[in-house]
Amino acid sequence: MKVLPVGGDALLVEVSSGDEAQALHAELLRRRAEGSLSAREIVPAARTVLLDGLDAPARVAAELTAADLPPAPPTTGDVIEIPVRYDGPDLADVAAHWGVPEPEVARIHAGTGFRVAFCGFAPGFGYLTGLPPRYDVPRRATPRTSVPAGSVALAGPYTGVYPRSSPGGWQLIGTTDAVLWDHARVPAALLSPGARVRFVPEARS
Hints:
Blueprint: E1 2-6, E2 10-14, H1 18-34, E3 41-44, E4 48-52, H2 57-66, E5 79-84, H3 91-98, H4 102-110, E6 114-119, E7 126-129, E8 144-147, E9 151-155, E10 158-161, E11 166-168, E12 171-175, E13 196-201
Parallel strand pairs: 5-13
Antiparallel strand pairs: 1-2, 2-4, 3-4, 6-7, 6-13, 8-11, 9-10, 9-12
Helix pairs in contact: 3-4
């Protein structure tokens, strides 16, 4: 673990894996909830966690480097279900990469319990983990200039849903009508770090 100062009241904590970042994020949220950590924002990423708005960043840094990181606790709370039609233009390519028939991609993906590791790229976009490493897929060699909103996609170890139309290089395996980001909703984002997610297959229209 490496702890780096960011400005006068923030720290960036670097760890060696995504699992460690998720465990650290859960532990920091626990400490803030019990009152032993005062931080305005705790923001996870792939292998880092940013703590912003600290009262005593030097003390927090010393505490983090001196303590062993506990494993992430079991995720609790309701499961967010996202309906999906497995009709994406890259479904055949993903099936070939996995060495399975196209319907098996849908079965494997829908049978997986996902967790939001972190959010980024665009408002409402969550990076979901849960698929075993053997199902990692590369990004497209040539990104698309426009990916439709609601596209369910894979890249590396992650699953994501495009909240709005944007360029993108992920492999598109399906579509959903779920609204990932809505300014009129509280909270605006459907997904947040730590949330549990399952994809529920719908019949193709």
